[in-house]
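Researcher: Can you fold this with 6-O-phosphono-beta-D-glucopyranose in place?
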Amino acid sequence: MKYEFPEGFWWGSAASGPQTEGVFEGDNKGDNIWDHWYREEPEKFFNQVGPEKTSYFYEKYKEDIQLMKETGHTTFRTSIQWSRLIPNGTGEVNQKAVAFYNDVIDELIANDIEPFINLYHFDMPMKLQEKGGWLDRETVDAYVEFAKICFELFGDRVKKWFTHNEPIVPVEGGYLYQFHYPNEVNMKKAVQVAYHEVLSSAKAIKVYHEMNLDGEIGIILNLTPSYPRDESNPEDVKAAQLADAFFNRSFLDPSVKGEFPTDLVDLLKEIDHLPVIEEGDLETIKNNTVDLLGVNYYQPRRIKAKESNEKLADGPMPDDYFDNYIKPDRKMNPYRGWEIYEKGVYDILTNLRENYGNIRCYISENGMGVEGEEDFVNEDGVIEDDYRIEFVEDHLTFMHQAIQEGSNVLGYHMWTCMDNWSWTNAYKNRYGFIAVDIENQGKRTVKKSGHWFKKVSDANGFD
Ligand code: BG6
């Protein structure tokens, strides 16, 4: 069978500033929470490898953009590091950063690769974190100012903007499950942080639209479809709906519909965990929804009704309302320990079509993390990552089906282009089309999947 995608479909990959650029002494970058946390607690990071050892994009971006061409990219997403552009979070703009991001954007355009720019990818400037980060209402204003500066500097050439990448992750990592700084467990704070992120996104969208630039703005959400263990068991179904409210609809509904899901609001009210909301906020959120949506999809969430009384923390937690469930016959990524469920992408897109006005969207991240990829190197030094080709192809097949049924899907981005540094996991899981030899000045080698992707992009589909 031939899988053909709509004309002008976006093929490419996504990355982020903090995971690829490297720190580089002397370029005036300020610290963000990762630089700080690594200095404080290096043992929290896989093999104690910190954020200064990223994939050398800061110096190798021209070579990388050529490799993007070689691997069939027509589009590429990265993020502007807030602490590189504005080292203290507010105030002075770092001209070295302006020059760097201008060069990256110009080089992409000169090579017919459309730049997609994201503003926040987990990288709070440390100066703002010292005052509370997303907990502090003033961070919302600082972020909107940062966004405005980015639109002014780069908005003449960048036509696709995103306010946040996976905003639920700093909430989960920083305030619930301890894998981001400040590494706390406090649901009240988690809710306030989430609320401020939602508000900051709406405010940045408002500023962008008021500037009348020729482009569009959205948000990138990691959607994890929540499947009940047993569809015919109302308790399982209810538990799955609550997990969906906490982890998907908490951001999806305000971003696309301009309102928070009532089941989540009712629950938070019941346990006295509503955030502090100022006058006019809800109107701002209502009136400034996204033009398009990026969907990151890696794995589903399997849920069953609460069986144990075990508590994760002293106070309330989302996990008080459901238990995670391991489906016995699930297909697994044996290298990363995540379930592979390709149909999940179809279910997400169908839900967006049926319940979210068929919002214009694209798959903004999808990919397969592998530990120990060096075991797949052939005699020519190329990684034969057939598992990744199969993974991407299977997901594309389900995306194609959703498109055939009317879903408004504009493109596909793999996570990621070059192997990169992934927060506390550092270089544990490799995701790229292109291998990066960290010990050898970041030497790049295109993997088998990169060559395969070029063919798919050129043909705008596959057999
Ligand atoms: C995505 C994030 O959720 O997952 C990326 O947007 C991250 O920033 C990627 O690198 C892979 O994560 P991990 O933990 O498997 O390395």
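Model: Folded with 6-O-phosphono-beta-D-glucopyranose in place. Residues 16, 19, 165-166, 222, 296, 336, 365, 369, 415, 422, 425, 429 surround 6-O-phosphono-beta-D-glucopyranose (CB under 6 Å).
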